[in-house]
Amino acid sequence: MKNINKKMQAELNNHLELDKKYLVACSGGADSMALVDIMLKAGYKIVVCHVEHGLRGKDGIADALFVEKYCRSNKIKYYIESVNVSALVKKEKLSVEEAARNLRYESLRNIKAKEKCDFIVTAHHKNDQAETFLISLLRGAGRDGLGGMLVVKEDIMRPFLDIDSEDLKEYCKAMKLNWCEDVTNTDLNYTRNKVRHLLIPLLEKEFNPNIVDTLVRESKILQQEEEFLNSFVEVELKKHLKKVGQRHKYALIDWYTLPKSLQMRSLKNQMHICDIEVSYKHLEAVYNLCVSRKSGKKIVLAKGWEALYAYDELVFRKAAKETKKPKTKKLLEVNYALKDLRVPIEIKTKKFALTLRAGKATTLKENEHLVCAIEYAKKYGNGFTIRTRRDGDVFVGASDSRKKLKAYFIDKKIPIAKREEFLLIAIAGNVLAIPELVNNKVEIENKIYIIIKIERFGRK
Predict the structure, then answer these.
(1) Is 271 helix (H, G, I), strand (E, B) or coil?
(2) How far apart, in whole angstroms, are the C-alpha atoms of residue 35 and residue 44?
């Protein structure tokens, strides 16, 4: 018994500090009673919280009263919280185990905040860790899931993950501590109970008598490897992941050079940062989106999120609500005759100021763009239009080559949302120039050109 007490105390000393305040979760079972008792005797500042889940009727209430009596007799501040697991199961379509866990930790965190505690401490032990490993394995978890529970994760501490459940019972017996037996712990309708009472005894008998220690050791190895891999990916994300408004943008150039395992981990960590629910199905879909390299393609993720690929950039964003598509709002559409350029033309809106004039290439000033030679423009008509793009537009390039404007934008890797912003110079339906993007007409010293200056307001 002396060795058990010493080992428990050593685990507390390794992870807890006497000057901090702890909220101890206590079900009334042997493991949590041992935790409360030894922390109390070691001089830690503790508050106890028992969560009654409303599932076991009188038995559940009896457990709550048992914890209350112990705390009163030992002058420990305590809280008894009641939650309605059945209602949450019905509302959220969760399993009883998941609903109970969610409500339990919600209650614990509320009390932690109220009491200004530094951490919540739970009595999870070595056997719980082995069971968690097997449950995760059966559910097809990856490396992080198989790593199981961490001793410290966010505001939760589990100092007894290296302590056997039988040792905790031995401690209670030696200290003459009573505890509650939860009859639902033998109910084989629950997955964890099947693993505890059926699978682990089978593995111990037929394969490895030390299976619990083996699984816990494997969890530790996986945790260490997980920590290393995550630290590597974190460096990559810091370099390439940026938040712009409500969007998270990730530059993929270096990502393409990584092994697939690190590519997948990078994507998964990005989704966690965005608080996007990660499933293997969605993770694989995001991976395929990136390797397809089809700009403008997007996929729908959980809880209103979507992933968009745009020219070697991955964007996670909230999907826009579907509404009736409005008519395209024209940024600008004005018509002029070529002869109007004899004097400068000035146009000013809330979004930009625009100046048009005629002149030689040699007279080009700062921020001005050549459109095309007036002589060249006359091949298509005597008037021109300044406007944004339309469906079916054709861009007339060098040597009168013709290409769909959409294809031209794709070649230039212009994102879809940006394409609506460019002003075009068109004559009789032919786009002759995109002044801010390209001038494809050869500059000849003696030619007279259409010259344009565009000043944007508030453009990023």
Answers:
(1) helix
(2) 11
Tokens of 141: 């978890």
Helix H segments across 274-404?
A: 280-292, 374-377
The amino acid at residue 39 is M
Q: How far apart are CA 297 and CA 308, in angstroms?
A: 6
Collapsed DSSP state (helix, strand, coil) of residue 323? coil
Question: In which element (H, E) is residue 363 found?
Answer: none
* pLDDT number for residue 398: 59
Q: pLDDT value at position 385?
A: 85
Q: Give the chain's radius of gyration (CA, Å).
A: 34
Helix, strand, coil shares of the chain, percent, nearest 5, are 45, 20, 35
Distance from the first to the final alpha carbon of the chain:
70
Integer Cα distance of 460 and 377 in angstroms = 32
Query: How long, in residues, is the chain?
Result: 460
For residues 108 and 51, is the Cβ–Cβ distance under 8 A? yes
452 contacts 369 by C-beta, under 8 angstroms: yes
pTM: 0.70
Average pLDDT rounded to a whole number, residues 161-170: 96
428 neighbors 381 (Cβ within 8 angstroms): yes
CA nearest 268: which of 278, 259, 260? 278
284 CB-near residues (< 8 Å, 6+ apart): none
Tell me if 343 sits within 8 A of 433, measured CB to CB.
Answer: no
Q: Which amino acid does the sequence have at 263?
A: Q
What gap in Å lies between CA 335 and CA 384, rounded to an integer? 6
φ, ψ at 182 (rounded to 5°) = -85, 110
Q: What confidence category does residue 156 fall into, taking pLDDT thresholds of 50, 70 and 90?
A: very high
Q: What is the pLDDT of residues 282-339, one digit of tens each?
A: 999 999 999 998 888 999 998 889 999 988 899 999 887 655 544 545 556 888 888 8
Sheet holding 119-121, edge to edge: 78-82, 45-52, 21-25, 119-121, 156-157, 152-153
Residues in a beta bridge with 142: none
Round to whole Å and give the CA distance between 447 and 442: 10
Tokens 């270096």, located at residue: 254
* CB under 8 A, 24+ apart: contacts of 80-84: 80/49, 80/50, 80/52, 81/49, 81/50, 81/51, 81/52, 81/107, 81/110, 81/111, 82/51, 82/52, 82/54, 83/51, 83/52, 83/53, 83/54, 83/107, 84/54
Looking at residue 197, what DSSP letter applies? Answer: I
With contact defined as beta carbons under 8 Å apart, do 121 and 39 qualify?
Answer: yes
